[in-house]
Amino acid sequence: MEPHEEKPIIYTMENKPIVTCAGDQALFAALYSALAQQLPREPMEWRRSYGRAPKMIHLEANFVQFKEDLLPKEGNKALLTFPFLHIYWTDCCDTEVYKASVKEDMLRWQTTLKHHGSQDWLIIVVESDAKKKNKTNLLPRTSIMDKIRNDFCNKQSDRCVSLADPLKESSRSQESWNSFLTKLRTLLLMSFTKNLGRFEDDMRTMREKRTDPGWSFCDYFMVQEELAFVFEMLQQYEDALVQYDELDALFTQYVLNFGAGDGANWLGSFCQPVRSWNGLVLRRPIDMEKRELIQRGEASLLDLRSYLFSRQCTLLIFLLRPWEVTQRALQLLHNCVQELRLLEVSVLQGALDCWVFLSCLEVLHRIEGCCDRTQLEANCSHTVGLWTYATEKLKSLGDLCGLVSKNGPNSEDLNRTVDLLAGLGAERPETVNSPQSPYKKLKEALSSVEAFEKHYLELSHAAMEMYTAIGRMRSARLVGKSLAEFYMRKGDPQSAEGFLQDSLKSYVAEGWSLQVTHTRRQVAECQKLLGQTEDYLQTSALLASDANLTDEERKHFCQEILNYANQGTKSQDQKVSLSMVAFAQLRELRFQPASPTVHVGAALQLELRLCSLMPVAVRLEQLAVSMHFSVEQPGQRGAPTSSTSTTPQRRNPTQGGTSGGGGTSCGVTPDGTVVFPAVSPAGGGLLGAGVGGSGGGPPTALELYEIQDRSPSDNSLNTTGVVCKNVHLLLRRRDSSTSLDAASAGGSGGVVGGSTASGGTASVAMEDGTQMLKTENVTLLPGNNSIPFTAPSEKPGTYTLRQVCATVGQLQFVLPHIYPTVHYAVYSQEPQLTIEPLTDNLLAGLPQKVKFTIVTGHYTVKKGDALQLSNTESMPILHTNSCTARIASSTGEPVGESALSIHSSEKVTSISLPPTPPYHTLDFQLDVLCHIPASPARPETERLTNGEVRHRPKSRTRYNSGMAVVDQKVSIDCPWSIYSTLISLTFAIPFKAKHSLLSAGKRKYVQVCLQNVSDTTFRLMDPTVTQRQQISSLELHSLNAKAQQLVYSKQSVFCLWEVKWASDPPACLQFSFSASFAPAEQADAEFKPYCYDFQLERVSTLYSLKAEIRPADGEQQCRTGTLCGLEVAITRLTEPSESERDEEETTESEGLRTTKLMYEVVDNSSNWAVCGKSSGVVSMPVAASATHRVQMEVMPLFAGHLPFPSVKLLKYLPHNATPAIQPDTDSCLENDNLSLLDKGLEDQADTASLRSRGSIHSLGSTDQPQPPASRGLPMPRLEPFGPGQVFNCSQGRQVLVLPATDDHILEVNAT
Q: Can you point out the beta strands (E) in 990-1141?
């Protein structure tokens, strides 16, 4: 490019593509207005190369007269001055005129275009009706067009266009005009696309040569900006912005490479010292001054950045994205400062601050000019960064020019101010009339101390208000802290303290320890200047304990505290109370002995472990712990209601006898230690709160990860950084209403005194009227210190530790609340006696050990004191001469052992107790034996030694284990009480027995089932059954093979005997089953007896039943679905005995005595269908061998071996007969179910198969309503036979049933 050959171009936002017009200028002038207006009305689709998306654009043109000077010369690539289309206008209608002048003029025009390589041209022939009228002998119109096309458009006939009289309003003229506009737009767009593509290729080639030594960024900048101008000319602002962004990124990369040691030659022009710092210029579309500097290669870094950003700002505003301007501006200002350092550009001190300040205000004024106030307030989050940056730079300028000091600027400061103002230059013309221009503000602010303070405070408060409005409280506090520093340098600590306290509140709440330390030092300086003694002392204590400070700084603040404490002696009322949280922390409290519960008069030591946070040793005049005492009240929690405990469970001697709501403290370990949570003195909260929390959980760890940005081409490292993945857990905003005092009081540190949010000292006064534990002259060394105290235990009750107070001179460091709450109990306990088994279950029948435990309480067991136990026959006390009693202290430590002396008489067992001091425990073991009751019969009552009526033990069933239990009550007389106490011991019977009577015709068998229901395995020996009332004609023959065997847990043993008799047996037989048992795991254990009494009634067999099933006639086997015959034979086996004759209801007719029986055939398994009558009443002769047969029909429902239907036989009694068989509750066999008849069976003609619903019922017990006439009539009853009186010979028989011949599905029932 040759800039000296270019004509000066005025770059405005009105630039349009140039179109030259040759030929008849008067003709063109007549059509210019309509052409310029109607050309951009219709959009055209612009298709670009390299796959870029098409766009719809409106083409405009700048029509100028054709001159050869407008044609581009060789090497000139400027697009804005490039004529994209050349048009020749003519309205010639005469051939002679055409040949004489027009043709020659057209030829010169085309020759000139070809000479300059321009191929984009168009010839327009305008048809005029007026000339046609004047020239009637002219050739037709087409002859002129043909000549022009033949002469100039042989290969491009579309380059010649005929335009019918455009000034005439007719359809033909309008159609011709529209066609002409379309052709013009198309040719113009084609030319524009072609030339623009060629320009982009040249620009790309130029960029690829950037590694050449002679390559210049300024030259390339002008070329690519030319492209941006073209896009802007087409109103494609986004594409124009992309060009500037590419230039920005390219320049930034070169600067970064220079900083890394890879510099380009052309960067040397940007390293020249900065001589002007007048800020950004955003009120001009194009800053021609800086553009010319760039074009000449004389621009500085700030000039290039200022011009580049001004162009980006203009385009962003055209794109209606003003808020992106503020974001880019903030990045630009920070990047420029870094780039000047990387390029090592010489800048006058303070010049950059001036440039940044002016630039911030210029951007803000530019945004205010294109947005209304409502938009500005709604989007202040985008502009607040610029306000803050401007505030910081103005403060920096004030420090530099001496405008912040108390004495004002000196001569050196004034000279520096003059140099800075000189670099600003003259004010720009566009801001001269603006009273609030950035130039005037900066110049006024640097002119005097008062003006600087005014502008600085105005900017600071504006930034704080914006931050507060958008909820960025941290940033607002940071600006406030900067304001506080300004006030401190101005000597106004009163104004600075409020801002510092607000910042400190935020830092403490969010856990920023370093910021807390720094801010707290500033607060301490304010408080010292303001004379706030208590607040200053509290803050000094916090700083003295702050690990972020050096040892010398900590010692300085500690010495400040000690100096005040040793100034003089004041009364107790005048002592200054401070919070202990920063002075020392309570870490542990230990009870010695290791129990927070002691008896009256016991020695109890409290050892406090205090961690001193001071850097030096501090001597305490007094260390005191205040306590609250709760007096013992009757009936309070834990107080025993009687002198003896009767529960069978083990109990701690110290529990249950604690007076005054005793119990243990919260968090007491087994060794008697209470650990207190650690508290951060810097923040006043728990150390477990983490960085951003305030809870008591484990600290939240920072989850930091490294991130790297590498180049996709060569994998080189571009940037690296650290990211925190759990920032949402660490940086959580706290409620603004949350008080730091509340958070501090939650820990053991109490309130944070002078560091509270409000700046005042919280109340940490000691409570009045409380008991105190005191120790004098204690020296606290840095770190942990152990201080012992002797705790009072003279009165029973609860002692609660409330506060800790350390006195140093006239200072008191108070811990207002001890958390968690610590208290110890002093109890006065009544003597207690506890009897508990040593196993889970006491088993009856075997010797069992029980433990006697005596808690003496306040009673002293003297020599001669004894326990008097009443003896019972069912539970004797088994004692030996080697019984030993053990004595232990209240803490469980053994004291000694002593042999017991036990004496038994007929009624009482006396146990002499060894002498035992108060609040000790005495325990010993005794063996007891509970006899197993042979029968549940309730014996006579007898009297205990104390006159009470005692019942013999009654067995009952423990349903959850299946074992029957026996409760044994023992009366005990204790020497410390005048009343006797009943102790209940529960024994479980290890066995469960049941009997049954088995029959085989007339032969009878007795079976006893013995089940082991305990968890112990026993050895069983010699099971026998004997008669309780001897009958000589009765004989029992044992069928048991083993004399001794094992009975495992939850298993049963069955024993069988055959009963034989020579004559008729009595109606009731009484037997007793006995066996010996012993635990299997004890080989030498003594066998103990077990007895079980039972009785049998009516053991003789009276009737036998026999059933037969026959197939249908003509069939050899029964088949399904075919009726079969069922015959039931009922046979009387014996003559009735005398007792049976009295009980049996008989009738006599014609010398024959008969009794009525009811039979019933049922099939509960649904294998048979009983057809016809299934039950009935028969009259049975009362004679041996008398037989009655009943026949009926049944139908098998399934094939296979089917069991016989069930046949039941019952007594049929008249309504006035008394049932002879009473329900036997001891029998283990259940009675058979009976049928309920809805009407008398004697008159029943046909009865269906009936189901039984219960046992003995009269016939009148029916579920269906009876007719009114028969409700009052007495009905007969049914009574079952006793066990063994009816023998069913067909029990268990089966019959083969074949399937039907035509069945396709075979169903087989296997039983």
A: 991-1000, 1003-1012, 1018-1027, 1034-1038, 1044-1047, 1052-1061, 1068-1079, 1088-1097, 1103-1110, 1118-1119, 1124-1132
* Calpha distance 541→559 (Å, rounded): 10
CB 358 within 8 A of CB 278: yes
pLDDT of residue 1062: 79
Most confident region among 208-222, 567-581, 1223-1237 by mean pLDDT: 208-222
Q: How far apart are CA 1212 and CA 1256, in angstroms?
A: 11
Task: Indicate the DSSP class of residue 1258.
Answer: B
Partner residues linked to 606 by β-bridges: 591, 789
- Distance (Å, whole) CA 323 – CA 327: 7
d(CA 537, CA 527): 9
- Which carries the bigger pLDDT value, residue 1143 or residue 504? 504
Kindly state the tokens that stand for 930.
């509970």
Tokens 């359809």: give the residue.
Answer: 171
Q: Are strands 83-90 and 18-23 parallel, antiparallel or unpaired?
A: parallel
Q: For the CA atoms of the chain, what is the radius of gyration? A: 60
SS3 71: coil
For β-strands 955-958 and 908-912, DSSP reports them as unpaired
Q: What end-to-end distance do the CA atoms of the chain give, in Å?
A: 116
Q: Distance (Å, rounded) from C-alpha 1253 to C-alpha 1256? A: 10
Three-class SS of residue 1108? Answer: strand
Residues 6 or more apart whose CB falls under 8 angstroms from that of 162 comprise: 125, 127, 141, 145, 176
Helix axes 380-400, 322-342, angle to 10 degrees: 40
Chain-centre distance of CA 177, in angstroms?
A: 76
User: Which three-class secondary structure state does DSSP give residue 330?
Assistant: helix
- CA–centroid distance for 456 within its chain: 48
**Which DSSP category does 959 fall into?**
T
Average pLDDT on 391-406 reads 90
pLDDT, residue 768, reads 65
* SS3 of residue 759 by DSSP: coil
Question: What is the three-class DSSP state of 844?
Answer: coil
**Helix (H) / strand (E) containing 1170:** strand 1168-1171
Give me the helix-helix angle, 301-318 and 237-259, nearest 10°: 150
CA 1046, CA 499: separation in Å to the nearest integer? 92
Q: Strands 576-579, 811-815: parallel, antiparallel or unpaired by DSSP?
A: parallel
DSSP string, 639-689: --SSSS---SS---TTSS---SS--PPTTB-TTSEEEPPPB-TTTSSBGGG
Tokens encoding 603: 């020695």
Residue 11 CA to residue 230 CA, distance in Å, equals: 11
Q: Is 769 left (phi over 0), alpha (psi -120 to 50) or beta?
A: left
Place of tokens 């403490």: 508
Pairing verdict, β 1118-1119 and 1294-1298 = parallel
pLDDT tens digits along 195-206: 888 888 888 989
**Helical residues (DSSP H) of 903-986, grouped into ranges:** none
Query: CA 454, CA 462: separation in Å to the nearest integer?
Result: 12
